[in-house]
Design brief:
Chaperone_Skp, mainly alpha, Skp_dom_sf, signal, two-stranded parallel sheet, OmpH family outer membrane protein, Protein Binding, DinI Protein, Chain A
């Protein structure tokens, strides 16, 4: 039996539609992608003021030590042995203070990050979003355009407040 193109056309057409309906993309639901201004949500947390106060104190104290170290460094080869000893002490003091500030600040930072992550997750789930990106990171070339309705910042702020 000879098959010609006219006889095969209906079979090919049915096969093409049948196979096309089996494609994985045809069975998945579209995912909603949202954006959050994470810095704004972090700044809204009550512990943010405590963190900023510790950072300011650290910057002031460590800045003063750094200034003294740079003054000794500026002397170059004219620095005396006493200057070099003082520099070594200043560096040790600066490192110890930096570690103390980090130890003091880390539990507060962890609590804020956990609360913000929870608030963003709650807002995303409540609004049907499956992916949420930090708006600042996305704006660095990762995303060229996003509709304003995809912003979950306000919803995350509401979820953050008790």
């Amino acid at each position: 039996m000879k098959m010609n193109a006219k006889a095969l056309a209906p079979i090919a057409l049915v096969a093409a539609f049948g196979l096309g309906s089996l494609a994985p993309h045809a069975q998945t639901t579209p995912q909603k992608i949202g954006f959050v201004d994470v810095q704004k949500v972090l700044a809204a947390h009550p512990n943010d003021k405590d963190i900023k106060a510790i950072q300011t104190q650290a910057n002031n104290e460590l800045g003063a030590l750094d200034k003294q170290i740079r003054e000794i460094d500026a002397k170059g080869t004219a620095a005396t042995a006493a200057d070099k000893d003082k520099r070594t002490q200043l560096i040790s003091t600066a490192q110890a203070k930096a570690k103390a500030f980090d130890t003091q600040m880390q539990p507060k930072v962890d609590a804020v990050e956990k609360a913000v992550d929870t608030a963003i997750s709650s807002a995303a789930k409540a609004n049907g979003y499956s992916i949420v990106m930090d708006r600042a990171v996305a704006a660095q070339g990762l995303v060229v355009y996003a509709d304003g309705t995809t912003d979950l910042t306000d919803a995350a702020l509401k979820a953050l407040k008790p």
